[in-house]
Amino acid sequence: MTEAMNRARLWATQPYFDPRTREAAAAVASNENDLLSAFGSELSFGTGGLRGVVGVGTARMNRYTVGRATLGLAHSLRQRGARRGVVIAHDSRHGAQEFTAVTAGVLAENGIPVYVFDSLAPTPMLSYAVRALGLDAGVMITASHNPAVYNGYKVYGADGCQITDEAAAAITACIAAVTYTDARVMSEASARENGLWKDVPDSLRRSFAQNCLFCRPNPEASHSIHVVYTPLHGTGLLPVREVLGHMQGVRVTEVEAQCTPDGDFPTCPRPNPEIDETLGLGIALCRETGADLLLATDPDCDRVGVAVRTPQGDYRRLSGNEVGLLLLDYVLRTRRQKGTLPANAVAVKTIVTSDLAFAIAGEYGVQIREVLTGFKYIGEVIGQLESEGREGDFVFGFEESCGYLAGTHVRDKDGVMACMLVCEMAQALKAQGLSVWEKLCDLYARHGYLGTRLLNFDIDGAVPMVEMAAVMRRMREHPVAELAGKTVTAVRDYQNGIDGLPASNVLVYEAQGLKAIVRPSGTEPKVKVYLFARAADEQGSDRLLDALSLEMGRLIRP
Q1: Would you give the DSSP letter of residue 350?
Q2: pLDDT tens digit sequence for 347-386
Q3: Can you name the residues that pair with 308 across neighbouring β-strands?
Q4: Where are the beta strands (DSSP E) in 339-471?
Q5: What b/e readout covers 248-281, taking b as 16+ CB neighbours within 10 angstroms?
Q6: Are 550 and 516 in contact (CB under 8 A)?
Q7: DSSP state, 61?
Q8: CB 3.0 to 4.6 Å from 262: which of 233, 285, 470, 541, for a disulfide?
Q9: Mind telling me the catalytic residues?
C-alpha cells in the first residue's frame, strides 16, 4: 500500500507528467481500491508486450507506461547494435494514435529510425512489414479482441514474429533500469527533419495483399458464393475488401453499422469473434440476405470468426477448432490434388488446439508439430524450417482462438488470409454440391467426434496477477483425480518445460477420451480452461463437457 501511494504521489506532483495526469493521480490516491488498481503494480512486459486498461497509473496503459517501455526497447536494440529501424502500426482503439506518436518519438530521440503507418493497419500487415522493410523490430499498438477499455503494445522481432522469451527478458531488464521520467519524446516534425521518421509506403499495403493471394491453394476457384463480412469497427475492412475483391465469384455484403473504426465498439462491446453475441448483427444480415457464410475479423484483424448456414436454414458460429480443422483438411487435400503438397510437409498447432488435427494430417502423410499457446511459437517453427532451407515445407498453422496461417510472408496469425481461405474452401465445396457445414460433419464422421469448450474464469481483485498465481498454485497443491467420473491417467505440468517445449504455466489432465488444460491468460485477468471430450456424437460430447465444466468451476473457484 505504501509503495502504491508513493507512486501515486510522484505522478501527482512531478512536473514531467501533464496536468491532467497529475490531477487524475491525485484523485486515485484518495480511494484505496482505485489506488491499488492503478498503482499497486507495474504493467508487466512479456512476450506479448504490454496490455492493460487505458488510464492513469503504473498498472495502466498510458503515454508514460508506453514511453518507458519504448525507452527499454530502444536501449535493448542499441545493445544489440540494431540500427535499421522499427515499424509501428495501430488499430482503432482509444489512445492508439497517441501511443503510436510516443513510441515513434522515444525511438527517434534515441537515434533509431521509425517507419509509421499513417492510418490503421492490421497486425499481420505489421508482421509482414518488419521483414519486407528489412527492419530490426515492429510495434503494434493493439489489445486485439479485448473489451474497449483495453489497449496494448506488441513487439515483433526482425523475423516478423512476436518476440521470444529471451528477447522479452532483455527488454524487461532495460525497462527496469529506467524510470517513467527518463523517456523523452522527439516531436514528429523534428524526427522527420532529422530523417528519423518516415511513412510506410503505400506499395507495402499492395504487396501484402498480393502475397496473401499467392497463398491460395486453388486460384482457379470461381464458384459463386455470397459472404457477409464485418470488421467489428477495426482494421480489417480495406485489406479484406481488397483481397476478396480479387477472388472471382465471391460476392461480399458488409455489415455497414460495423464498418466505421471506433474504439468504443458500440455495436459489440466485446469485439471477440469467438463470442456468439459479437456476431449478432452479422448473423442477422445473413438471415436477411441468405448468405452462405459470415466472416468477422477482430479489431486488429489477426483473428476471424466464421458462421455458416446449417441444413435447417439458420446460421451457427463454428469454433476456432472447427474452422482450423476444415482449413487444414482443405489446404492439404487441395495441394495434394494440385501436386503442390511438399513431400515433407509440416503443419503446426498449439497444445490447446484440437487433437483431431493429428488424424487429418495423418491422412495426407503430413507431420503435425505441436507448440505452446501463442502464435509466436508457430512463427518460430517457420523460422526453424527457413534456417534449414525448408521454408516451403510449412503448409498450415492454427490455434483454437480463431488464428490461421497458410503462408510464410507473415509470421503471425492472419485474419485477411483466413477470410480468403474460408471463401475459397466454400467455393470448392459448393462446386461439389456441399456446404461448409456438411463438410464439417464429414470430417467428424471420418475421424470421430471430439467436442471442445473454452471456459474463462474472470479473476477479481486489485492485483489480478497475484490471484491468478494463487489459482495455479492451488491446482498444483491439490491434484485433480477424476474428470467427469473417469480416473485421471496422466498429468502434465509444463512449468519446468516438457515434451521438448519451453517452460510454461500450464497444467494438462487426461482421462479416457477426456482432457482439461488450465492456464492463466497472458493478456487479461482470467484463468482459461480448455476442455476436450470424445464421444459418438455432439450430444454425447456436450454431456461430458457440461460435467467437466461444472467440475472445473468448482476447482477454480472452490
Answers
A1: E
A2: 999 999 999 999 999 999 999 999 999 999 999 999 999 9
A3: 293, 316
A4: 346-350, 367-371, 394-399, 403-405, 449-458
A5: eebebbbbeebbebbbebebbeebbbbbeebbeb
A6: no
A7: B
A8: 233
A9: 144
Q: Which helix (H) or strand (E) holds 139?
A: strand 137-141
In order of 301, 332, 372, 376, 483, the CA distances from 380 in angstroms are 21, 21, 11, 6, 34
Nine-digit cell string for 416: 485477411
CB 400 within 8 A of CB 455: no
CB 248 within 8 A of CB 222: yes
Name the strands in the sheet holding 293-297, side by side, starting at the edge strand that comes first in the sequence.
250-254, 225-230, 293-297, 304-309, 315-318
Q: Which three cell numbers stand for residue 341?
A: 503438397
Q: What is the DSSP letter of 18?
A: -
Amino acid of residue 26: A
> Could you give the CA distance from residue 301 to residue 145 in angstroms, rounded to a whole number?
9
Q: Residue 198: what pLDDT?
A: 98
Residues in Cβ contact with 35 at an 8 Å cutoff, skipping those fewer than 6 apart: 1, 4, 5, 8, 28, 29
Say which residue the cell 490516491 belongs to.
29
pLDDT grade for 387, boundaries at 50, 70 and 90:
very high
Name 280's Cβ contacts closer than 8 Å, sequence gap at least 6.
268
Q: Rounded mean pLDDT of 32-52?
A: 89
Cell of 147: 473489451
Bridge partners, 87 (sequence order): 115, 138
Tell me if 529 sits within 8 A of 517, measured CB to CB. Answer: yes
d(Cα 206, Cα 336) in Å, to the nearest integer? 29
Measure the CA dihedral 444/446/449/452, to 10°.
-60
> CA 463, CA 217: separation in Å to the nearest integer?
47
